[in-house]
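Check out one such.
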Amino acid sequence: MEEARGRAVRALEPVMPLLVELGRAFERAGFELSLVGGPVRDAFLGRRSADLDFTTDARPDDSVRLLRAWGDAHWEVGRDFGTIGARKGDVVVEVTTYRSESYDAASRKPEVSYGDDLVGDLSRRDFTVNAMALRLPSLDFADPHDGLTDLAAGLLRTPGTAERSFSDDPLRMMRAARFAAQLRVRVAPDVVAAMTAMAERIAIVSAERVRTELEKLLVAADPVAGLRLLVETGLAEHVLPELPALQLEIDEHHRHKDVYEHSLTVLQQAIDLEDAPGAPGPEAVPGPDLLLRLAALLHDVGKPRTRRFEEGGGVSFHHHEVVGAKMVAKRLKALRFDGDTVKAVARLTELHLRFHGYGDGEWTDSAVRRYVTDAGPLLGRLHKLTRSDCTTRNARKAKRLSAAYDDLEARIARLREQEELDSIRPDLDGTQIMALLGIGPSRTVGRAYQHLLGLRMEHGPLGPEGAERELRAWWAQQPESRPAEPSEPAEPSEPAEPSEP
């Protein structure tokens, strides 16, 4: 314990003067203030938290007044939940009034009530490792639920009963899985049992809050552990049903692997391939990378819908990458991921099988160029996803696939030296095409552009003269290039017969 306390002191040393200063400001006004939750837990783990969360008996009006005087700026976005934020220099703090909160059985919004003492506030925290506090400015340590003992033992427990904790806020069930991934702790059996029994309660929590927890889980140190817990407790059925759906039955001949286990293995292998922060190169993917991890986890979600049992006992999943891309987009949209993330993960899912045609025969330079241009800025992630997707136990096959991808990457590098592969354009732009053909803006210009782009992809740079020659040859075959044939002159009409009088 003394060693843990020493780590905590060293971790908090850079911000200790600020902590004491803020604590004294509240103390002079007659209020309590304590550093609480994640920052205290992380300090005992020997690392500094990016967030500084405080709890107090001061009501929000009082916190606003004190933080306005203390900091350079303050905000009241979380006021309805008792939270006031402030910034002083580069340090951001959030101060929350002692409180308890609970959900109505059918409500997505918690009911908040304020409390008057620190121990009561800590009792309503999610887990004991987050129910520790450092009183300010005295620096007295408060740990009424033995959170430090649990932290040292690597155990995740709730301060009270798990059922009560999860009833107060069902999102805590996902937080349990996130902490299993983030802190690599063992979740207590009674907590797992409550998660299993109450899994359907997660449905009342907003998609945005669920997404935030899922993101934190995926970029944690061991996301596979957290995902397994979500699946085993049934929570995944409500927040990411495509994942447990991958647990396909193994047919009696064992002709195909469990796609769920395969996907978790791909995820872990993708994590192992992530680059160190600041790694150089156009295809570097510094970890933790949310897009790569999402794509690795979800790349095969189309398999259950496309599974077919073939004659002779085989199993096929034709076009599962196309079906899967649509499923990925639909699920991520439902979880309120931003549009760029949705498009990127769906695109990686769609492209993850493209490479497998490479080993069957030599790709032309045109095919390599298309592979690069179709991946665009996702090429580095596609490299790592494709390599991670090899989970075969056949060492010879794995070696062959790895060598084939080494060869593809080498060809990409050679072509990149020859030309700007990342931004391939035809040798003539739209303005030049219109000038050479003597036409104005129209669909014909787009067709001409695509024709020259196809030649560029197939043969590489043509140069202005070669492109002009090819353009004129193409134009000569187009109906728009031919002058309209003059219409036949009308036959002279016979003079009208005079009418009889």
Q: What stands out?
A: The longest strand covers residues 91-97. The chain is about 50% helix and 10% strand.
